[in-house]
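dumping this here before i forget
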Amino acid sequence: MQDINFHSVIPAIAVPFDDNLAIDRDELTRFSRWLAGQPGIGALMTNGHTGEVFSLTPLERAEVTRITAEAVRGICPVISSIVCEGIREAVEQARLAKEAGADALDIMPPHHWLRFGFKPEHCLEYFTAIGDATGLPLIVHVYPAWTRASFSSELLAELARLPAVRAFKIGTREMNKYARDLAAIRAADPSKALLTCHDEYLLASMVQDIDGALVGFASLVPGLIHDLLQAVRAGDLARAIEIQGLITPLKDAVYGAGEPTGEAHGRMKAAMARAGIIRSAAVRPPTQGPSDAELRAIDAALEHAGLLPVAA
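structure:
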Protein backbone atom coordinates (compact mmCIF):
# COMPACT_ATOMS: atom_id res chain seq x y z
CA MET A 1 0.00 0.00 0.00
CA GLN A 2 1.11 3.54 -0.71
CA ASP A 3 0.84 6.32 1.84
CA ILE A 4 -1.62 9.04 0.85
CA ASN A 5 -0.86 12.73 1.05
CA PHE A 6 -4.25 14.07 2.06
CA HIS A 7 -2.88 17.64 2.08
CA SER A 8 -3.35 17.79 -1.67
CA VAL A 9 -5.88 17.75 -4.50
CA ILE A 10 -7.54 14.35 -4.95
CA PRO A 11 -9.78 14.07 -8.03
CA ALA A 12 -12.85 11.88 -7.89
CA ILE A 13 -12.38 10.61 -11.40
CA ALA A 14 -14.80 10.33 -14.29
CA VAL A 15 -14.98 6.98 -16.13
CA PRO A 16 -14.73 6.99 -19.94
CA PHE A 17 -17.15 4.71 -21.77
CA ASP A 18 -16.85 3.41 -25.32
CA ASP A 19 -19.53 3.64 -27.99
CA ASN A 20 -21.30 0.63 -26.47
CA LEU A 21 -21.23 2.24 -23.00
CA ALA A 22 -18.74 -0.33 -21.71
CA ILE A 23 -15.80 0.84 -19.61
CA ASP A 24 -13.14 2.07 -22.03
CA ARG A 25 -10.11 0.42 -20.45
CA ASP A 26 -7.50 2.04 -22.69
CA GLU A 27 -8.98 5.51 -22.30
CA LEU A 28 -9.33 5.12 -18.53
CA THR A 29 -5.68 4.05 -18.37
CA ARG A 30 -4.52 7.04 -20.42
CA PHE A 31 -6.72 9.51 -18.54
CA SER A 32 -5.68 8.21 -15.12
CA ARG A 33 -2.00 8.53 -15.96
CA TRP A 34 -2.47 12.04 -17.29
CA LEU A 35 -4.45 13.13 -14.25
CA ALA A 36 -2.08 11.51 -11.75
CA GLY A 37 0.80 13.46 -13.29
CA GLN A 38 -0.78 16.88 -12.83
CA PRO A 39 0.79 19.22 -10.22
CA GLY A 40 -0.38 18.75 -6.64
CA ILE A 41 -2.31 15.50 -7.14
CA GLY A 42 -2.03 13.33 -4.03
CA ALA A 43 -4.22 10.40 -5.11
CA LEU A 44 -7.06 9.45 -7.44
CA MET A 45 -10.47 8.33 -6.20
CA THR A 46 -12.57 5.84 -8.14
CA ASN A 47 -16.28 5.03 -7.85
CA GLY A 48 -17.49 8.40 -6.66
CA HIS A 49 -20.58 10.15 -7.95
CA THR A 50 -18.47 11.76 -10.70
CA GLY A 51 -17.54 8.24 -11.78
CA GLU A 52 -21.24 7.42 -12.30
CA VAL A 53 -20.94 4.80 -9.59
CA PHE A 54 -24.67 4.07 -9.50
CA SER A 55 -24.52 2.95 -13.13
CA LEU A 56 -21.72 0.47 -12.40
CA THR A 57 -22.18 -3.09 -11.19
CA PRO A 58 -20.16 -4.21 -8.14
CA LEU A 59 -17.74 -6.10 -10.39
CA GLU A 60 -17.38 -3.08 -12.68
CA ARG A 61 -16.55 -0.90 -9.66
CA ALA A 62 -13.71 -3.26 -8.77
CA GLU A 63 -12.59 -3.27 -12.40
CA VAL A 64 -12.45 0.54 -12.53
CA THR A 65 -10.26 0.51 -9.43
CA ARG A 66 -8.05 -2.24 -10.87
CA ILE A 67 -7.53 -0.42 -14.18
CA THR A 68 -6.78 2.86 -12.40
CA ALA A 69 -4.41 1.29 -9.87
CA GLU A 70 -2.48 -0.50 -12.60
CA ALA A 71 -2.28 2.70 -14.64
CA VAL A 72 -0.87 4.89 -11.86
CA ARG A 73 1.27 2.35 -9.98
CA GLY A 74 4.40 4.18 -8.86
CA ILE A 75 2.82 7.58 -9.58
CA CYS A 76 0.15 8.02 -6.91
CA PRO A 77 -2.17 5.98 -4.64
CA VAL A 78 -5.78 5.07 -5.45
CA ILE A 79 -8.83 5.43 -3.21
CA SER A 80 -12.10 3.63 -3.94
CA SER A 81 -15.51 4.74 -2.75
CA ILE A 82 -17.74 2.15 -1.14
CA VAL A 83 -21.45 2.62 -1.87
CA CYS A 84 -23.55 -0.09 -0.22
CA GLU A 85 -26.72 -0.65 1.77
CA GLY A 86 -25.52 -2.96 4.54
CA ILE A 87 -22.45 -4.10 6.41
CA ARG A 88 -22.02 -7.49 4.71
CA GLU A 89 -22.22 -5.96 1.26
CA ALA A 90 -19.90 -3.13 2.26
CA VAL A 91 -17.29 -5.53 3.65
CA GLU A 92 -17.49 -7.62 0.49
CA GLN A 93 -17.05 -4.64 -1.83
CA ALA A 94 -14.33 -3.16 0.37
CA ARG A 95 -12.35 -6.40 0.12
CA LEU A 96 -12.83 -6.44 -3.66
CA ALA A 97 -11.55 -2.86 -3.83
CA LYS A 98 -8.50 -3.78 -1.75
CA GLU A 99 -7.78 -6.80 -3.97
CA ALA A 100 -8.11 -4.50 -7.00
CA GLY A 101 -5.40 -2.22 -5.66
CA ALA A 102 -7.14 0.42 -3.54
CA ASP A 103 -4.86 2.01 -0.94
CA ALA A 104 -7.75 3.59 1.01
CA LEU A 105 -11.55 3.64 1.01
CA ASP A 106 -14.03 6.50 0.89
CA ILE A 107 -17.15 5.39 2.78
CA MET A 108 -20.45 6.86 1.63
CA PRO A 109 -23.50 6.60 3.90
CA PRO A 110 -25.87 3.75 2.98
CA HIS A 111 -28.50 5.37 0.85
CA HIS A 112 -31.45 4.00 2.80
CA TRP A 113 -30.26 6.41 5.52
CA LEU A 114 -31.34 9.20 3.15
CA ARG A 115 -34.91 7.92 3.41
CA PHE A 116 -35.14 6.50 6.92
CA GLY A 117 -32.34 8.17 8.87
CA PHE A 118 -30.02 6.26 11.21
CA LYS A 119 -28.70 6.08 14.75
CA PRO A 120 -25.12 7.17 15.53
CA GLU A 121 -24.24 3.62 16.58
CA HIS A 122 -25.26 2.40 13.09
CA CYS A 123 -22.66 4.68 11.58
CA LEU A 124 -19.90 3.78 14.03
CA GLU A 125 -20.55 0.06 13.54
CA TYR A 126 -20.51 0.47 9.75
CA PHE A 127 -17.11 2.19 9.68
CA THR A 128 -15.63 -0.13 12.29
CA ALA A 129 -16.66 -3.26 10.38
CA ILE A 130 -15.15 -2.02 7.11
CA GLY A 131 -11.94 -0.90 8.82
CA ASP A 132 -11.55 -4.20 10.68
CA ALA A 133 -12.20 -6.25 7.54
CA THR A 134 -9.69 -4.48 5.30
CA GLY A 135 -7.10 -2.74 7.46
CA LEU A 136 -7.22 0.16 4.97
CA PRO A 137 -7.37 3.87 5.88
CA LEU A 138 -10.93 5.20 5.70
CA ILE A 139 -12.33 8.53 4.54
CA VAL A 140 -15.66 9.67 5.97
CA HIS A 141 -17.86 10.92 3.13
CA VAL A 142 -20.00 13.67 4.68
CA TYR A 143 -23.34 14.29 2.97
CA PRO A 144 -25.19 17.64 2.80
CA ALA A 145 -26.77 18.99 5.98
CA TRP A 146 -30.25 18.93 4.48
CA THR A 147 -30.24 15.13 4.00
CA ARG A 148 -31.31 12.55 6.59
CA ALA A 149 -27.88 10.98 6.14
CA SER A 150 -26.21 14.10 7.56
CA PHE A 151 -23.76 13.43 10.40
CA SER A 152 -23.98 15.62 13.48
CA SER A 153 -20.86 17.44 14.67
CA GLU A 154 -20.84 15.12 17.69
CA LEU A 155 -20.91 12.01 15.49
CA LEU A 156 -18.11 13.40 13.31
CA ALA A 157 -16.01 13.81 16.44
CA GLU A 158 -16.69 10.17 17.36
CA LEU A 159 -15.69 9.06 13.87
CA ALA A 160 -12.50 11.12 14.14
CA ARG A 161 -11.53 9.04 17.18
CA LEU A 162 -11.72 5.77 15.22
CA PRO A 163 -8.18 4.57 14.42
CA ALA A 164 -9.10 3.51 10.88
CA VAL A 165 -10.46 6.95 9.94
CA ARG A 166 -7.80 9.14 8.37
CA ALA A 167 -9.72 11.90 6.61
CA PHE A 168 -13.10 13.54 6.02
CA LYS A 169 -14.55 14.38 2.59
CA ILE A 170 -16.80 17.18 3.73
CA GLY A 171 -19.79 18.22 1.61
CA THR A 172 -21.94 19.80 4.32
CA ARG A 173 -23.17 22.58 1.99
CA GLU A 174 -24.45 24.67 4.87
CA MET A 175 -21.70 27.00 5.97
CA ASN A 176 -22.61 27.43 9.63
CA LYS A 177 -22.66 23.67 10.15
CA TYR A 178 -19.54 23.30 8.02
CA ALA A 179 -17.61 25.55 10.43
CA ARG A 180 -18.94 23.65 13.46
CA ASP A 181 -18.06 20.31 11.87
CA LEU A 182 -14.50 21.35 11.11
CA ALA A 183 -14.03 22.57 14.68
CA ALA A 184 -15.48 19.36 16.15
CA ILE A 185 -13.18 17.12 14.11
CA ARG A 186 -10.11 19.23 14.87
CA ALA A 187 -10.90 19.12 18.59
CA ALA A 188 -11.38 15.34 18.56
CA ASP A 189 -8.19 14.55 16.62
CA PRO A 190 -6.25 17.30 14.84
CA SER A 191 -4.27 14.70 12.86
CA LYS A 192 -7.30 13.79 10.75
CA ALA A 193 -7.30 15.48 7.34
CA LEU A 194 -10.17 17.78 6.34
CA LEU A 195 -10.97 17.78 2.63
CA THR A 196 -13.51 20.04 0.98
CA CYS A 197 -15.76 18.40 -1.59
CA HIS A 198 -17.70 21.58 -2.34
CA ASP A 199 -17.08 21.60 -6.10
CA GLU A 200 -19.47 24.49 -6.61
CA TYR A 201 -17.89 26.91 -4.10
CA LEU A 202 -14.28 25.97 -3.76
CA LEU A 203 -12.76 29.23 -2.53
CA ALA A 204 -15.42 29.81 0.13
CA SER A 205 -14.88 26.32 1.55
CA MET A 206 -11.08 26.34 1.26
CA VAL A 207 -10.49 29.45 3.36
CA GLN A 208 -11.74 27.72 6.52
CA ASP A 209 -8.45 25.96 7.30
CA ILE A 210 -8.98 22.77 5.35
CA ASP A 211 -6.11 20.50 4.34
CA GLY A 212 -7.01 19.57 0.78
CA ALA A 213 -9.75 19.05 -1.78
CA LEU A 214 -11.39 15.80 -2.87
CA VAL A 215 -13.61 16.88 -5.74
CA GLY A 216 -14.92 15.53 -9.01
CA PHE A 217 -14.30 18.94 -10.59
CA ALA A 218 -10.57 18.14 -10.43
CA SER A 219 -11.12 15.68 -13.30
CA LEU A 220 -11.68 18.77 -15.45
CA VAL A 221 -9.54 21.55 -13.91
CA PRO A 222 -6.89 19.91 -11.71
CA GLY A 223 -4.37 22.67 -12.33
CA LEU A 224 -6.73 25.50 -11.43
CA ILE A 225 -7.84 23.77 -8.22
CA HIS A 226 -4.21 23.11 -7.26
CA ASP A 227 -3.34 26.76 -7.92
CA LEU A 228 -6.34 27.89 -5.87
CA LEU A 229 -5.37 25.71 -2.92
CA GLN A 230 -1.80 27.01 -3.07
CA ALA A 231 -2.98 30.63 -3.14
CA VAL A 232 -5.23 30.04 -0.13
CA ARG A 233 -2.38 28.40 1.77
CA ALA A 234 -0.12 31.35 0.97
CA GLY A 235 -2.75 33.79 2.22
CA ASP A 236 -2.82 35.46 -1.20
CA LEU A 237 -6.49 36.37 -1.39
CA ALA A 238 -6.10 38.51 -4.52
CA ARG A 239 -4.54 35.59 -6.39
CA ALA A 240 -7.17 33.20 -5.04
CA ILE A 241 -9.97 35.47 -6.25
CA GLU A 242 -8.30 35.71 -9.67
CA ILE A 243 -8.12 31.90 -9.99
CA GLN A 244 -11.69 31.47 -8.75
CA GLY A 245 -12.67 33.93 -11.47
CA LEU A 246 -11.42 31.43 -14.05
CA ILE A 247 -13.17 28.54 -12.32
CA THR A 248 -16.56 30.21 -11.77
CA PRO A 249 -17.82 30.25 -15.39
CA LEU A 250 -16.94 26.57 -15.70
CA LYS A 251 -18.60 25.87 -12.37
CA ASP A 252 -21.72 27.68 -13.58
CA ALA A 253 -21.71 25.81 -16.90
CA VAL A 254 -21.31 22.43 -15.18
CA TYR A 255 -23.25 22.81 -11.93
CA GLY A 256 -25.52 25.78 -12.61
CA ALA A 257 -26.88 27.27 -9.40
CA GLY A 258 -27.17 23.94 -7.61
CA GLU A 259 -25.23 21.00 -6.26
CA PRO A 260 -23.66 18.21 -8.33
CA THR A 261 -26.20 15.96 -10.06
CA GLY A 262 -26.08 13.20 -12.64
CA GLU A 263 -26.69 15.67 -15.43
CA ALA A 264 -23.99 17.96 -14.01
CA HIS A 265 -21.57 15.05 -14.23
CA GLY A 266 -22.68 14.61 -17.83
CA ARG A 267 -21.98 18.27 -18.51
CA MET A 268 -18.54 17.97 -16.92
CA LYS A 269 -17.77 14.90 -19.03
CA ALA A 270 -18.75 16.89 -22.11
CA ALA A 271 -16.40 19.67 -21.04
CA MET A 272 -13.61 17.14 -20.55
CA ALA A 273 -14.17 15.75 -24.05
CA ARG A 274 -14.30 19.20 -25.64
CA ALA A 275 -11.07 20.15 -23.85
CA GLY A 276 -9.40 17.00 -25.17
CA ILE A 277 -9.04 15.37 -21.75
CA ILE A 278 -11.08 12.28 -22.68
CA ARG A 279 -12.14 10.94 -26.05
CA SER A 280 -15.87 10.55 -25.50
CA ALA A 281 -18.50 12.30 -23.37
CA ALA A 282 -20.74 9.22 -23.31
CA VAL A 283 -22.77 8.72 -20.12
CA ARG A 284 -24.88 5.77 -19.09
CA PRO A 285 -28.67 6.21 -18.93
CA PRO A 286 -30.66 7.54 -17.26
CA THR A 287 -28.04 10.32 -17.07
CA GLN A 288 -28.27 12.50 -20.18
CA GLY A 289 -25.72 14.60 -22.01
CA PRO A 290 -26.01 18.39 -22.24
CA SER A 291 -28.26 20.35 -24.56
CA ASP A 292 -26.93 22.53 -27.38
CA ALA A 293 -27.37 25.62 -25.20
CA GLU A 294 -25.46 23.95 -22.36
CA LEU A 295 -22.66 22.99 -24.76
CA ARG A 296 -22.35 26.60 -25.89
CA ALA A 297 -22.01 27.69 -22.26
CA ILE A 298 -19.39 24.99 -21.68
CA ASP A 299 -17.39 26.11 -24.71
CA ALA A 300 -17.46 29.74 -23.59
CA ALA A 301 -16.31 28.79 -20.09
CA LEU A 302 -13.50 26.60 -21.45
CA GLU A 303 -12.32 29.42 -23.67
CA HIS A 304 -12.44 31.88 -20.74
CA ALA A 305 -10.28 29.51 -18.67
CA GLY A 306 -7.82 28.98 -21.52
CA LEU A 307 -8.56 25.26 -21.79
CA LEU A 308 -8.79 25.24 -25.60
CA PRO A 309 -12.06 23.43 -26.33
CA VAL A 310 -12.23 21.23 -29.39
CA ALA A 311 -14.01 23.06 -32.20
CA ALA A 312 -17.62 21.99 -32.54
